[in-house]
C-alpha cells in the first residue's frame, strides 16, 4: 500500500536513512514537456529551512528523474524520481535504538515488522514526502496542460493561533512569511507562539486549508473513489495528520438542511450555487464550485524535553531526543498537501475523461 | 472505484431503483461458519424504521447470498450478496426528472455521465449501503473468529445537541433509544430537536463516534494504507459525510507536543500508553490502545420546504420534495460506520498476517 | 483474483450449483445503448446444445442485468449480470462427495480451501463462463460503438482432426456446423471422430483459433500489460486450456530472423507489413495488422469409462462419472474465447485512449 | 501495467538508454536475511557474455538496493533496485531515429505514444529485465526460506535443433555449456547452428522449458489468477516470447481423455498422480506434482542483413542494423524465465497462506 492513484499512480519507496528516497510515477501521458526547474522548486519548498521554527539540517534534496523522461519530455513510461539521503548521521540515533519515543512510530513499526531501521523515522519519516512532492508537481504540470484548475494551500492555524474568520485572503500573500499564512497579523502571532514554544522545548500542531479553483464539473468516482474520499485518504497518509473535513465539515453537523443546502443559480451563462457549504462536492463529484478542505496536524512528537518511556526490555527509561527537529512542521507540509491534492486530481481527471469521451 | 479493500475486498453495485442492490465480497477465508441470522439483523438495523425521525418506507431488505456459501460455510470463493429493491414507486420521482434538487447529486451525476436514473438517488442513494452492511457483518464474523476485536459506534451529536464531555458511556446503552445515543438525557434532547425540526420540514446532521476495542498491535499499512487513511476513505464514502478525525482530531492542532504525546507504561505485563490522544494509531499502525474516531454528517438535503432551484434548461423553478424522507439519517448510519470499520479491519488484518507470519 | 481488466473490469462470482452465477462489470461508459437481445444470443451460443457431441442438460441461462442499465442505456455504474442455476440436481453428484475424479479440480480445491462444494465443478465449472460471455458481448457492443474492430474465433482442431493448412477460410462458414469449424470437409471428419469417441465413452480436446480484424495501431500496455500477455492470461483462465500462442507461435522458434521479420510497406496510404508472422503485435502493442492467436484445450476429464482413483481416506476406488457431460467442449468454448478477447480489448482501448488524447 | 503480482508485487521502470533501469519490490516480508551476492550472480547470468552467440557489450549491471534493506535484512518496506545504464553510446542509434526497424517495437511505440526514445529499444529493450531478475532472486530467497520449492529452466530448442524426447536430463548439466542446454550432444548441434547463423548475419529463436519441483498443493487462485494464467502472463511479457504451454500443452489437444487423465495413487504416504499430463496444475491450482511449462521465443529481429523498410515519412529505405546484437538471446532469457516464475510463485504463496491459515 505504497501507492496512490490507479491510472496516474505513484509508488513510494525509501526510508529516512536508506541510500535514497524516491517514487515511481506511472500514467503520465507521453509528450508532456516538463519544467524541471519548477519540480525542484516544489521540493525545495518542503525542505527544512533556516528559520527558527524548523530544523536546521541542510537537506539538499536534488531531484533526479532517471527514467521516463527524454529530452525533457515524458515518454509515457514510468518516471522514477530519486532523492539521495546525503545527511545520514545515524550515530545521532544510536541512543534511540532500544527505546520507544512517545507518540512516535518506533513501537508500532517494531511490533508490526519485528525489526526496524532505528535511524530516524525510517519509513515513517516526513522525509519520504520529498519525492512525492516532485511527483505532485508533475501532476500539476499535467493538469495545467489541459485545464485551468489551480490548487493552493495555506496555514490557517498554528497551535492556538488561528486565522480570524471571514477575512478575505489572497493567495499572493501565502509565501510572504515563513508560516505560509496569508494574513500578516496572524503570522506575527504565530511567530511569537513558535518562538515561545521553541524556548520551552515544546512543539506545535496546526491546520492547513486547501482550495481548488476552476474545478470542472464531474470529477470524482462513486462510491469509494469519491473526490472527498480520495482527498481524505491522501491527506490522512501525511505524517501527523489527525483530521480531514471539506466544505463546512464538522460545523455542518450543527446546521439544518435549510441552512446548509446550496441553492442553484444561473449566472453569466453558468450553473452556480449561491453558497458553498458543500465545498464544491456533491455525491462525491465536483459541482464546479471551489473545492475547499481542511487538514488537522498534531504537534510533532519529538519534543526537546525529557520524557518517561519504556525500552525494548519494557523497562522505564527517560528519553532525551537530541536530533535537530522542527518546532512546527505544519508550514513545511503545505507543499505536501498541494502535491497530494494535485495527484488525486490528476488521477480522477484521467478517470473522468474515459467516462465522458 | 466501487471497491473497498484489496484482499478482503468488497465491490458494490446497484442503484436505488434498479432491480437490486448488492455487492461481491472476495477474500473471505474458506470454512468460516456464517451466522446468517446476524447478517440479516445487521442490515435490519440500518433500515428505515417506524419512528418519527426517519422515513416510513417499508424496505424489507432480505439478504440473499447467492454464491460462495455452501451449507452455511464460506467456500473461499466470492460471496455475492443481493437485496431486491421491492418498493420502486418511481412515479414519485417523475416531477424531479428535469430538475436539480439543491445539494443533491442530481446535477453532478448528470454532468459526469450525461445521463442518470432520476428515480431517487440512483447510485448516490444511501440504499446502496444495505448490502455493504451485510458484507461488514461477514467481516465482523471473520474477525471474531480469530481475534477479540470489537467495533461499536454511537451517535454523539444531532444538530446542536451533543453528548456532554467526559461522561462515562456504556455500549449497552447505545440501542436503548432510537437515536443510538448511549446517554438517556441527551437522547431526550435529540428527540425534542428532531420533532421540532420535522414539524418545520427541515433536516438535521450529526456526528457518529466509533470505538474499536482489543486492537492487536501492528495493524495498518504504510504509507497510503495507514489504518487512519483507510478508515477515513471508507467513512468519507458514506453519504453526507463531511469530516473525519481520529484520536484528539482537530482539537489536537491546538495542543502542544508535551500535552499530546502519549507516554508508554508497562501495566499487567503489557505495553500501554497513559493517555490516548493518538486514538490508538501511531504512524498509521495500531498501538494496541482503543482506536477512536469521529465522523461528521451534514443534514440530508431533502427538506420538506419549497426551494428555489434550476432545471435542465437552466430555468428557475421551485422544487417540492414530496417523497418519504428522513429528518435525520445519522442514527441509521451507525451500522454503516460499524460495517465499514469492520471491513477495513478485516482487510488490514489479512495484510498484517502476511507480514508477521 | 476473480477480476479481469482494470478500467473495463469484470468480477466473476458463482459456483456451478450455487443459486446463481454472475459477474459485475465496471467501467462501461455511460449512455451506451445496449442490444439486450444480442447479449442473450451470445450466452446461448455457449450453452449445452442438443447435438450428440455435447451434454443434454437444458440450461436456460436467462441473462438478467440487475443494475447499471436504465431504459436499455448504461448508467456508467457497475452492471451486475445474473444467471440462475436452475438445474441443480445435486444428488447426481452425491457419489462423488468423497472421491477425487482424475484430472478434475476436486483434489486441488479441497486441498486449497479445506472444504468444497462437491456438486459438480463448483467454482471450477465451465458454467461460470456464462455471465462472462454476456459481459464480453457488452465489451463487443462498446467496441463496435467506437471502432470497427471485429473479433471472431473458430475450431481449427478437434482431437487429431485439424484444418488443412493454407485453406482460405470465411467467417460466414463458422456457424454452418455444430463444430464451429469453417471448413465443411474437416467438420465432417470431426463429426465422425466425435461420434466414435462418444461411443467409446471417451472425450476430445482441440484448438480454437481467434482472429481480430481492423485493429487500430497502438493497443497494448508495456510491460506486463502487453496485448499478448493480457490475451494469454485471459485465455489461460478458461477451463482446460493448456496452451496459448500468437502469430507464428511455437513454430516461430524454428525460423530465422530473416524469415520471420515482417517488412513494412506503404499500401493505399497505410503502413502495412508484407507478412504477419508477428500476429499483429510488436513489443506487446498492436501494429494494425490482424491479431491472430491459437488456444489449446485438453480433452475434458469426465470420461464415461470407469477410472481408478482415491477417495478422501486415500483408499483406492473406481469412479464412474455418470452425469451428463460433453464429449468435446471445444466448440462451446468459441464464444468464451471471443468474449474474453473482447473484454481484453475493451480494457486496453480505454487505457490507450488516455495515453493518446 | 508495469507491475507483476499483487502482494509480492514488482513495479518496473527504465529504458535501455535512460540513466537507470530498476524496479520497486513490495510485499517482501520483514526480517528476511538477503544473500546479496546471489542476487548479483543471478543478474550476471542474464548479462551479455563474451561468447560468440551473444552481444559483446560490456554491461556491468551492478545491482544497488537503495531502500527496504537494512543490515542485509528486509525491513518489510519497498525495496528499490537500481542498475545504472553505463554504456549509452546513443550515437550508434542516430541512423535509426527516423526509421522503423522491421519486427521491432519502433513503429508501435511511436504510434502509441507519439514520441519515443529511439536510442535502442527504449522501454521495449530486453535490458529492463535485469533488475527484475534481481527481484526474482529475492523472491527465490523468500520462497527458499519457507518452502523447499525449486525452480529451474533450460534451453530445449534453438532454431531447428531441439532436445531429443524422453532423454533423462539433469539440472546440474544446464550450465555446462553456454546454451544452457542440459544435453551435451544437443548443445554441440546448437553451437554449430549458431555459428553458421552468425556468419549469415541472421538470428535464431528457441524454446525454454521450465520445471518447478517440490510444489506444495493448493497454490493458484481461481479464476483469473490461476497458476497457469499467472505464469502465462508473466512469460508473455518477456521480449520476443510467442507462445506458452504447460503440461502436455498443444500436444494435449490431440489426446483422448482416457489418455490424458492423470490417475491418482497413494505412494509413500502421499497422494500422487501416475502420470503428469497436467503439468502439476488442475483447475489452475497446483496438485503437488512438478509444474512444467514451455516458452517459445521468436528470433530477435535485429539481423545483420540489409532490410527494406519505411521511415517516418513513409518512404522506402534500406536499414542496416549495426549495433552489437545477439544471434540468439534465448540462453540469456533462462534466468529471466526463472526469475519471473519465482515472482509468480512468491505472490501466489502469500495469497494461499491467507486462505489456509
Write up this protein.
The structure is a homotetramer of 357-residue chains. The first copy, chain A, has 357 residues and is α+β, with helices and mostly antiparallel strands. The longest helix of chain A is centred in the last third of the chain and has 27 residues. Chain A has 7 helices and 18 strands. In chain A, strand 14 and strand 15 form a beta hairpin. In chain A, strands 1-2-3-7-4 form a 5-stranded antiparallel beta sheet, with helices on one face. The first copy, chain A, has a single domain, classed as Chorismate synthase AroC (Chorismate synthase, AroC fold), CATH 3.60.150.10. Strand 11 of chain C pairs antiparallel with strand 11 of chain D.
Quaternary:
homotetramer
Strand content of chain A: 15-25%
CATH 2nd-level architecture of chain A? 4-Layer Sandwich
- CATH topology label of chain A: Chorismate synthase, AroC fold
Mean pLDDT of chain A: 91
Unreliable segments of 5+ consecutive residues of chain A: none
Largest beta sheet: strand ordering of chain A:
1-2-3-7-4
Largest beta-sheet details of chain A = 5 strands, antiparallel
Based on helices, strands and strand pairing, what is the structural class of chain A? alpha+beta
CATH classification, class level of chain A? Alpha Beta
| Fraction of residues in helix of chain A | 25-40%
**Rg on CA atoms of chain A, Å:** 21 Å
Amino acid at each position: 500500500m505504497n501507492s496512490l492513484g490507479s491510472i496516474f499512480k505513484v509508488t513510494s519507496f525509501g526510508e529516512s536513512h536508506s541510500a535514497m528516497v524516491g517514487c515511481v510515477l506511472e500514467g503520465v501521458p507521453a509528450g508532456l514537456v516538463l519544467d524541471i526547474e519548477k519540480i525542484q522548486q516544489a521540493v525545495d519548498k518542503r525542505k527544512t529551512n533556516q528559520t527558527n521554527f524548523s530544523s536546521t539540517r541542510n537537506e539538499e534534496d536534488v531531484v533526479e528523474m532517471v527514467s521516463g523522461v527524454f529530452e525533457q519530455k515524458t515518454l509515457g513510461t514510468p518516471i522514477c524520481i530519486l532523492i539521495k539521503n546525503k545527511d545520514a548521521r545515524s550515530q545521532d540515533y544510536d541512543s534511540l535504538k532500544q527505546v520507544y519515543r512517545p507518540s512516535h512510530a518506533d513501537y508500532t513499526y517494531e511490533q508490526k515488522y519485528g525489526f526496524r531501521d532505528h535511524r530516524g523515522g525510517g519509513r515513517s519519516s516526513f522525509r519520504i514526502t520529498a519525492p512525492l512532492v516532485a511527483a505532485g508537481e508533475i501532476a500539476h504540470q499535467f493538469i495545467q496542460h489541459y485545464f485551468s484548475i489551480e490548487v493552493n494551500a495555506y496555514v490557517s492555524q498554528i497551535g492556538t493561533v488561528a486565522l480570524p474568520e471571514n477575512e478575505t485572503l489572497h493567495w499572493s500573500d501565502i509565501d510572504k512569511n515563513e508560516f505560509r499564512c496569508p494574513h500578516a497579523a496572524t503570522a506575527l502571532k504565530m511567530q511569537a507562539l513558535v518562538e515561545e514554544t521553541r524556548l520551552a522545548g515544546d512543539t506545535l500542531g496546526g491546520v492547513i486549508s486547501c482550495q481548488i479553483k476552476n474545478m470542472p464539473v464531474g470529477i470524482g468516482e462513486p462510491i469509494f473513489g469519491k473526490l472527498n474520499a480520495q482527498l481524505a485518504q491522501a491527506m490522512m497518509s501525511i505524517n501527523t495528520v489527525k483530521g480531514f473535513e471539506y466544505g463546512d465539515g464538522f460545523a455542518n453537523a450543527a446546521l439544518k438542511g435549510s441552512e446548509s443546502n446550496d441553492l442553484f443559480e444561473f449566472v453569466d451563462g453558468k450553473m452556480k450555487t449561491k453558497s458553498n457549504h458543500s465545498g464544491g462536492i456533491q455525491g462525491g463529484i465536483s459541482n464546479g464550485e471551489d473545492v475547499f478542505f481542511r487538514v488537522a496536524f498534531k504537534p510533532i512528537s519529538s519534543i526537546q524535553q525529557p520524557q518517561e518511556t519504556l525500552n525494548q526490555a519494557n523497562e522505564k527509561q527517560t528519553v532525551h531526543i537530541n536530533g535537530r527537529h522542527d518546532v512546527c512542521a505544519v508550514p513545511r507540509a503545505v507543499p505536501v498537501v498541494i502535491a497530494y491534492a494535485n495527484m488525486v486530481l490528476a488521477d480522477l481527471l484521467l478517470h473522468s475523461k474515459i467516462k465522458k469521451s
